[in-house]
Amino acid sequence: MTKSNDIDPEKLLEIYRRSMRVFKTDERFREMLTSGKLRLVYYPVRGQEVLSASMMCALKPDDYLVTTYRGVHDQVSKGIPLKDLWAEFTGKVTGTCKGKGGPMHITDPDSGVMVTTGIVGGGLPIANGLALSSQLAGDGRVTVVSFGDGSSNIGAFHESLNLASIWKLPVIFLCQNNRYGEHTAYAASTAAKQIIDRAPGYDMAAIRVNGNDPIEMYNAAREAVERARAGEGPTLIEAMTYRMLGHTFGADFSYVPKDLQQEAKEKDPIPLFKKMMLDRGTSEKALAAIEDEITKELDEAVEHALSSDFPEIDEIRFDVLKEEIPA
Amino acid sequence: MSTADTITFSQSINQALDEAMAADPKVFVLGEDIADAQGGGVFKATAGLSAKYGTDRVRTTPIAEQAIMGAAIGSAIAGYRPVAEIMFMNFLTVCMDQLVNHAAKLRFMSGGKTWVPLTVRCTTGAGVGFGGQHSDMLEAWFAHVPGMKVVSASNPAEAKGLLLSAIEDDDPTLVIEDIMMYAQKGPALEAGVKVPLGKARVRREGDDVTVITYGRPVKTVDAIAEDLAKEGIGVEVIDLRTISPFDAETVLNSVAKTRRAVIVHEAIKAHGVGAEVSARIHEELFSDLKAPVQRIGSKYAPVPFSPPLEQAFLYSPEEITSAIRRVLG
Ligand SMILES: Cc1ncc(C[n+]2csc(CCOP(=O)(O)OP(=O)(O)O)c2C)c(N)n1
After folding, report:
1. Percentages helix, strand, coil for chain A, rounded to the nearest 5?
2. Residue B240 has what pLDDT?
3. pLDDT tens digits for A25-67?
4. Is this prediction's pTM over 0.95?
5. Which of A42, A182, A194, A253 to mutate to test the pocket of ligand 1 (most atoms within 8 A of CB)?
6. Is A314 exposed, middle or buried (0-12, 13-18, 19+ CB in 10 A)?
7. Closest by CA position to B303, among listed B219, B145, B181, B180
């Protein structure tokens, strides 16, 4: 067992850097939406940055990721270049998917992001397939599939855990339990007291962690990755977090009790992480330098996205099938 | 091609899987009960394959259609060529999300960065006495989804040739097998021969009327054409083989010549493939047509159990003949 309070300082810094990249990206999206410079349905990840960064830091670049509409944190943490990501979010031909996928369907095999789905729970069965390919090929890759707590009530979740377990697939089911599925609170939709309570039914290793604590989260992730790489099968991680904004950006948020909102503000993982870094001896200056670097990168990415072209209309005939569709 | 009736439809499918697995280590098969320990598939289509290739490549799955389809899709994205067996076509409804929202669209939504070289085999067909939930022909559903190919063979040799092409194809392809044809015998296909996707076959030439069909009704239509030839009526018979995308060129060329068309399929007539083919003919050849295009399909009802009802549900040879006579005027 790994001690949950120890972590390599270099690794912690890397998690911090990725968390800040997510935080700043998410922040910039919201700013641009508010100012009217951008128009899209945006699923904020405010509050879930550290969870995702910690998980992805436990992976190698060529490990696979399957994520959802609320996936910017996963995509950025896994390493999609910000330029390509922003261009896809704005529907530009320079995007990861030539603008044909859009925010809910980001694919970037170069960084291991294989599927982003808008179908709740739809990614789990496919993650098994990616993991199966690694098992068959013996290539040592691990697949992580990220989803919300609400997704654990869809049939595909159960079919996927069962199959992964009997086949001992190198897959990690990463449940980002942010306590809400759209407007419905956890307890109103989910009969299990906690998501990991479902794992014993599938004879699966499971761990519940504070996803907002980088050390706890990273160590849980590392343990699951090691298990998968060793051929010992899947893990269900229930990472506790909190969605600090509405389901979509700008959506009503009044259904979340005020005291819970207040508590979440006090436990905001980003300032806490910053404080942890300072307490551990990283200088204000070093942290500011990280932020500056990201801001610069973001400025360039946004500029690139805005100045890029939309795809030619003719693009609609391509990539439907391998053969082009007649004009 | 030898002319002797040496092979059944199901043996032919088995042969295709065997050849594909021998030729390409990336090909593997998954589905319920398909390994030899579980009987080699309910219709024996995979019998003997796990003995030859092992249970890693001939994988029996739990009864979990979404899990089967997802495992196939994910491995296909990663470079494998899975052949997923869904025991009955009706069970595709259980994994529609995986097929429709994922398999069919991932190439497009990724801007061509990923693709899904997936083959899905399923059985179906009325006449077996399975009743309402094991007999539907749902090809129109899948033909309506951009990004998928849909095929159905009319004899053992083409069943093998089409399946080999489907496995080799880089797009998700649904292969529909008619249970009523499994025991049907025909000439075998020589090793290495394939039937190309997207190409219809003109089975018989004729100048008076074109009958467009696929799957089980092809045999019935062939026999009708033979009969009508004795009366001096020239029926051109086209087997679509690939239902989507369908070979409009072959169909339109034929109808431009005969100026009359009848479409026959086993699926119910309403909103079926016949509607699409008929509409295309009317769009392109309306002023050349000597009569409106006729469609023959099964009745608008769930497939009934009671034998006389099940028979009445299906299209009949008489209906086909009278539709042909009707367009001949
Ligand atoms: C199959 C399906 N049903 C419903 C929806 C609509 N929907 C989108 S997000 C969502 C809530 C999902 O909650 P959860 O899984 O907890 O993820 P979160 O959004 O909190 O990250 C719903 C119901 C959908 N996209 N897919």
Report:
1. 50, 10, 40
2. 98
3. 999 999 999 999 999 999 999 999 999 999 999 999 999 999 9
4. yes
5. A182
6. exposed
7. B180
Give the tokens for residue A85. Answer: 């990501």
Antiparallel, parallel or unpaired: β B173-178 and B201-204 = unpaired
Give nearest CA residue, ligand 1 atom 8.
A120
Residue B198, phi-psi category: left (phi > 0), alpha (psi -120 to 50), beta (remainder)? left
Set of chain A residues whose Cβ sits within 8 Å of the Cβ of B170 = 322
Alpha helices in chain B (DSSP H): 9-23, 49-53, 65-77, 96, 106-109, 139-143, 156-168, 217-230, 248-258, 273-285, 307-313, 317-328
Amino acid at A196: I
Output b/e per residue, B119-149; b: 16+ Cβ within 10 A: bbbbbbbbbbebeeebbbbbbbbbbebebbb
Residue of B nearest to A145 (CA): B74
User: What amino acid occupies position A320?
Assistant: V
| A236 Cβ neighbours under 8 A, 6+ residues apart | A161, A173, A175, A195, A196, A198, A199, A204, A205, A206, A207
Backbone angles phi, psi at B88, to 5 degrees: -135, 145
Q: Do A322 and B101 touch (CB under 8 A)?
A: no
- B312/A138 Cα distance (integer angstroms): 54
Contact in structure between A161 and A200 (CB atoms under 8 Å): no
Check CB contact of A273 with chain B, cutoff 8 Å.
no
pLDDT at B191: 87
Report the nearest atom of ligand 1 relative to the CA of A182.
Answer: 11
Option in B78, B101, B111 nearest A130 (CB)? B78
In sequence order, the 6+-apart residues with CB closer than 8 A to the CB of A121 are A147, A151, A152, A154, A155, A156, A157
Q: How far apart are CA B19 and CA B271, in angstroms?
A: 37
DSSP string for residues in B217-260: HHHHHHHHHHHHHHTT--EEEEE-SEEES--HHHHHHHHHHH--
Q: How far apart are CA B324 and CA B227, in angstroms?
A: 12
Which residue of chain B is at minimal alpha-carbon distance from A165? B62
Q: Which is the closest atom of ligand 1 to the Cα of A178?
A: 20
Q: Does the ipTM exceed 0.90?
A: yes
Distance to chain B for A90, nearest Cα, Å: 14
C-alpha pair distances (Å), A133 with each of B25, B75, B156, B240, B286: 12, 5, 32, 34, 51
**Å from CA of A39 to ligand 1 middle:** 21
Substitution target in B55, B56, B66 with the highest count of A β-carbons within 10 Å is: B66
By most ligand atoms within 8 Å of CB, the mutation choice from A26, A120, A145 for ligand 1 is A120
Residue A121 CA, ligand 1 centroid: distance in Å: 8
Q: What percentage of chain A has pLDDT greater than the value 70?
A: 99
Question: Is residue A167 within 8 Å of residue B62, measured between CB atoms?
Answer: no
